[in-house]
């Protein structure tokens, strides 16, 4: 406890002393005579506002910051925001947590806990959200429940990605990239005005690398692959009407993971000796995971946004269809069989399509009361299949416990919602924000479990057996819940805002995926309810040179949906939990050229009850919630100068994450040690638009785990990329 308090005090002092702050600031306008931070405009409440005026804990990354952190996807910016962690089981199952809130469920009949949207379109499946950044304008991360404006799948927060709109001008950007592990890539963005009122924008991206890990027997690379993406947007503005249509496609053809067994205090000594012998002379990124592993994904979507400016209010219609399919294969042990007496070949495919329609009425910018009201409809169809081919040997399990089993899910998920929110100013310095949403969810599912050995080698192979048998069953359920937001803010002094808020979030009940019995398969988990109590400060000081924000919060979880892998058996339950914490972030303009910043988060996230799965009591009470490090902090320095007849820019980032557990058991083998990552960027841009940029990631060559699966006291881990570098040459004209 003393260590935590000391670490907290030290970092808090550093934040205050150096003016550490958010990793988002703008330099898109000419620099002023005196050093000052530029205002950050966000649309977190479905209308344009200054970040400092929004009574929400929010971090925003603009296009410039994304470029200077060499961010290629949400995995690159997640840990740079306070209280956020992102781990990834595979390409189809990224696991995003905010303030200890998230999920590892892969079921076809479940929702994410963190809402992810692209241009305000909610993404239903996690595999469709782990996108590569392509022509991105900004990313906003909202912390805490967003149950009013974002709905059922934002009980823990929201991550919103906004792409660039076509502009009424002719511009071109072309970029070539090369880097570590045989990386190469290219990007092209074309913007063209098409008549007086219309414009089009095309963005294309390709990227490939050989991978940073290796399959030991063959020498083939793992953790690499190729990505392709394109987006075409068309904009028409005619009188009070604005119509924006876009279509995007992406394709990923990635190599599989390299699983590495990591022993811990709970590992049997015989297994420690065996694993150390099998891995003698290998490093953390050399594995016996199959060279035939793969991660493939195809996405496409179309969106039409129609805006109409009426006299009293504005109208927004947002219509979208998205289609996502992925398949992957993973060796979950990363050790040779039968030398190690367990091998699990895990394969999955998923095809999902979604349609959503949202209508909103929005107050005019000069209205005395700012308000938004709307209706939302969402439907998705998901077909999912997961197969386990297991080989076992003593002392882990008799060979008969191995086998071949497949789990099939066909799900239809539908959601309806009505919502509204208003901000009422009063007494010159006060504002009251009140919002509510009513959501109704429906789920219909067919679940099938098959013993692919057709009972010829009983019992059925794990994870279906040895106690379970094949089944075919159906289930349906309806859930509905009101959610709300109440926030009171006051500005007692100019540019200093205090707020207190109470928010309720909701995530609909879900059916488990790899259930062992028909009863478990057709019995849904209860809906999650999350209450968030928060007080916060947003301040801009020293004539605009210092931005300092903070939030103190308490989350109370009712019926948290919990998933744990016991051996190879999925255990599902509901539990109670609480999270207490605080966040600090700010930015300081040291001069016209240099900005310093950073953030700090402290979490105390714990279960407050045991859980029950069938007849099994799970001893969770007082254990730490998964993916909830006690402390996280970021530091950065960013600058730009006129130099050598052009403009020189540079940035260095450091992010620290304390140790955390990967699942609710808190077993030592699922503990990810604390680690710090350093990245850096530098560029020079000539007056004619030619830019040369160099960047490096994980410059300290830190060994850190991005995913852990536990079994027999061993943490079978995926390690992040080692030190890497890249160079990009581009021209804008």
Please supply descriptive tags for the structure shown above.
733 residues, mainly beta, 22-stranded antiparallel barrel, 5 helices, 41 strands, globular, disordered N terminus
> How many strands appear in the DSSP assignment?
41
The helix-and-strand class reads mainly beta
The unreliable regions are: 1-32
State Rg: 25 Å
Average pLDDT, all residues: 90
Short description:
Helix content is 6%, strand content 58%. The chain contains five helices and 41 strands.
What would you say this structure looks like, in words?
The protein is mainly β and 733 residues long. The chain has 5 helices and 41 strands. The strands form 8 sheets. It has a 22-stranded antiparallel barrel. The protein has a 5-stranded mixed beta sheet with strand order 3-8-9-6-7. The protein has a 3-stranded mixed beta sheet with strand order 14-13-18, with no helix packed on it. A hairpin with a 6-residue loop joins β1 and β2 (49-50). The longest helix is centred in the N-terminal third of the chain and has 17 residues, at 2-18. 48% of the residues are buried.
Secondary structure layout:
Elements: H1 2-18, E1 41-42, E2 49-50, E3 57-62, H2 63-68, H3 74-77, E4 84-88, E5 94-98, E6 114-118, E7 121-122, E8 136-143, E9 157-163, E10 171-179, E11 183-193, E12 198-209, E13 213-215, E14 221-222, E15 225-238, E16 241-255, E17 259-263, H4 269-278, E18 286-287, E19 294-309, E20 313-331, E21 342-363, E22 370-392, E23 403-426, E24 430-451, E25 471-493, E26 496-507, H5 518-522, E27 528-541, E28 546-566, E29 569-589, E30 594-607, E31 611-613, E32 616-618, E33 631-643, E34 646-657, E35 660-661, E36 671-672, E37 675-686, E38 690-697, E39 705-711, E40 714-719, E41 724-732
């Amino acid at each position: 406890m003393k260590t935590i308090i000391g670490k907290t005090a030290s970092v808090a002092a550093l934040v205050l002393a150096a003016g550490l702050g958010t990793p988002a600031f703008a330099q898109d306008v000419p620099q002023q005579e005196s050093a000052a931070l530029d205002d950050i405009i966000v649309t977190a409440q479905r209308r344009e506002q200054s970040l400092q005026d929004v009574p929400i804990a929010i971090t925003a990354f603009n296009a410039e910051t994304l470029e200077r952190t060499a961010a290629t996807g949400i995995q690159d910016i997640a840990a740079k925001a306070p209280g956020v962690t992102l781990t990834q089981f595979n390409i189809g199952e990224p696991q995003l947590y905010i303030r200890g809130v998230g999920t590892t469920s892969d079921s076809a009949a479940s929702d994410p806990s963190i809402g992810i949207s692209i241009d305000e379109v909610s993404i239903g499946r996690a595999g469709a959200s782990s996108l590569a950044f392509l022509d991105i304008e900004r990313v906003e991360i909202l912390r805490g429940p967003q149950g009013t404006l974002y709905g059922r799948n934002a009980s823990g927060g929201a991550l919103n990605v906004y792409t660039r709109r076509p502009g009424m001008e002719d511009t071109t950007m072309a970029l070539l990239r090369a880097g570590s592990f045989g990386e190469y890539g290219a990007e092209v963005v074309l913007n063209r005005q098409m008549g007086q009122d219309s414009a089009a924008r095309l963005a294309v991206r390709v990227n490939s690398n050989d991978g940073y890990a290796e399959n030991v027997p063959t020498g083939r690379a793992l953790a690499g692959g190729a990505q392709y993406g394109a987006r075409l947007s068309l904009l028409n503005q005619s009188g009070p009407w604005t119509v924006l249509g876009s279509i995007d496609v992406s394709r990923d053809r990635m190599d599989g993971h390299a699983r590495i067994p990591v022993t811990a205090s709970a590992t049997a000594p015989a297994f420690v000796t065996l694993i150390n012998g099998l891995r003698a002379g290998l490093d953390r990124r050399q594995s016996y995971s199959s060279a035939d592993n793969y991660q493939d994904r195809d996405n496409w979507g179309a969106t039409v946004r129609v805006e109409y400016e009426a006299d009293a209010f504005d109208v927004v219609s947002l219509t979208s269809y998205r289609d996502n399919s992925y398949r992957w294969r993973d060796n979950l042990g990363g050790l040779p069989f039968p030398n190690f007496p367990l091998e699990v070949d895990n394969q999955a495919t998923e095809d999902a399509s979604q349609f959503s329609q949202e209508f909103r009425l929005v107050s005019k910018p000069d209205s005395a009361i700012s308000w938004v009201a709307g209706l939302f409809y969402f439907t998705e169809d998901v077909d999912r299949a997961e197969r386990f081919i297991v080989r076992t040997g003593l002392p882990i399990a008799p060979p008969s416990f191995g086998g071949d089993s497949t789990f099939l899910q066909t799900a239809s998920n539908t959601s309806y919602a009505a919502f509204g929110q208003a901000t009422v100013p009063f007494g010159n310095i006060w504002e009251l924000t009140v919002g509510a949403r009513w959501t109704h969810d429906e789920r219909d599912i067919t679940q099938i479990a098959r013993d692919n050995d057709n009972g010829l080698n009983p019992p059925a192979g794990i994870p279906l057996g040895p106690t379970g048998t094949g089944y075919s069953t159906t289930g349906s359920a309806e859930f509905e819940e009101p959610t709300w937001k109440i926030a009171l803010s006051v500005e007692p002094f100019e540019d200093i805002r205090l707020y207190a808020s109470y928010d309720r979030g909701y995530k609909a009940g879900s059916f488990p995926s790899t259930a062992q019995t028909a009863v478990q398969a057709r019995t849904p988990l209860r809906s999650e309810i999350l209450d968030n109590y928060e007080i916060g400060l947003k301040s801009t000081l020293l004539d605009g040179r210092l931005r300092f924000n903070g939030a103190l919060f308490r989350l109370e979880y009712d019926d948290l949906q919990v998933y744990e892998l016991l051996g190879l058996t999925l255990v599902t339950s509901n539990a109670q939990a609480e999270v207490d914490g605080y966040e600090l972030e700010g930015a300081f303009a040291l001069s016209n050229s240099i900005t310093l910043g950073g953030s700090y988060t402290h979490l105390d996230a714990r279960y407050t009850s045991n859980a029950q799965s069938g007849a099994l009591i799970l001893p969770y009470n007082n254990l730490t919630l998964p993916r909830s490090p006690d402390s996280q902090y970021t530091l950065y320095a960013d600058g730009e100068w006129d130099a050598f007849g052009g403009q020189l820019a540079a940035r260095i980032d450091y992010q620290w994450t304390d140790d955390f557990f990967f699942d609710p058991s808190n077993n030592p083998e699922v503990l990810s040690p604390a680690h710090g990552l350093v990245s850096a960027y530098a560029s020079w841009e000539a007056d004619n638009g030619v830019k040369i940029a160099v960047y490096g990631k994980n410059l300290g060559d830190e060994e850190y785990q991005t995913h852990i699966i536990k079994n027999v006291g061993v943490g079978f881990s995926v390690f992040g990329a080692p030190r890497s570098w890249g160079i990009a040459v581009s021209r804008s004209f």
